Amino acid sequence: ALPSGRTTYRHLYEYEYELKELARKNPNLVRAFTAAEPTIEGRDVVGIEIATDVNNLADGKAIDFVMGVHHAREWPAGEHAIEWAYELVNGYRADPSIRSLVGKTRNIIVPIVNPDGFSISREAEPKGDFSRFDYEMKRKTCEPADSPPQFRTGVCMANPGGAQRGTDPNRNYAGFWGGNGAGLNWNSETFRGSQPFSEPETRNIRDIVSKRQVTNLITLHTFSGLVLRPPGVADVRPPLDEPTFKALGDKLASRNGYTSEPSWGLYDTTGTTEDWSYWATGGYGFTFEIGTVAFHPPYQDGVVAEYTGVAPALGAGKGGNRQAFLDMLANTADP
Ligand code: 0X9
Ligand code: ZN
């Protein structure tokens, strides 16, 4: 079972409500926050921070940052992030080893980086000529970006074939922005945006990573069973500390049963989260591609099994993402 006991995919309002409730019920341990900028459709991006004496922001502790749902249709990414929050809050009371790890770190969690896109996908209904599926499989943000004026009005429209209005938030960071593996046109599924950090969604993450001591981050996506590390593109130099980076990625992958590799092994991408954060700050950053079958499979498969590690597909002895996140946190904690 999951730390929260959840058995179905959350709606956007449930994420917000639950994060704020966790903070309200645990005032010294959990702080809810709203990211610097609202989205183009006016939504708040809500996160929480979990630490002993959480409001003492300048206590100098290293930060572990877990985020989900850059991509709208990748619902399990948000679920794994919020379940990790419950894991830490529950564990702080009930599990001495988790209490110890929380005591040595600060934990920032933003389950839904792209709430405009997520709410379109999660609440998908047929509209006009477009089927429910066109909306449910939305990937990008709702930014009008360089789209023609007729696409800037009304709801965040999807259209057939998946060529949707919006910017790909995982091509809009400054890391190698403008290189291979990112679309140049507004209707590309990997549209990079008009310039690095042209979108509020990526500026919000830049703000957190730049202002705080983020030592390790995991950005959650679906699907392919991967633990990816920089670089995202083949024609750049790998991190100077690639051996250490690889060792950590391999360790996380030994827990969730995924494949550990540099991101460019999947395909070239530029402007991704950790290709910016690593070269901007030196903090470690990984992309987890959760699951093996679909962007949002049935909850039991995409969330419960992948989080707890009991899925037959993961194989005996695998701890699932719960254990991978705990290993990441142990890596963040002072000895
Ligand atoms: O293309 C992406 O943004 C990611 N795959 S997804 O199916 N979730 O869209 C992969 C990104 C891999 N590259 C880096 N993380 N650098
Ligand atoms: Zn993704």
From TrEMBL:
Residues 8-320 form the Peptidase M14 domain. The active site is at E289. Belongs to the peptidase M14 family. This is Murein tripeptide amidase MpaA. It comes from Actinocrispum wychmicini. The lineage of its organism: Bacteria, Bacillati, Actinomycetota, Actinomycetes, Pseudonocardiales.
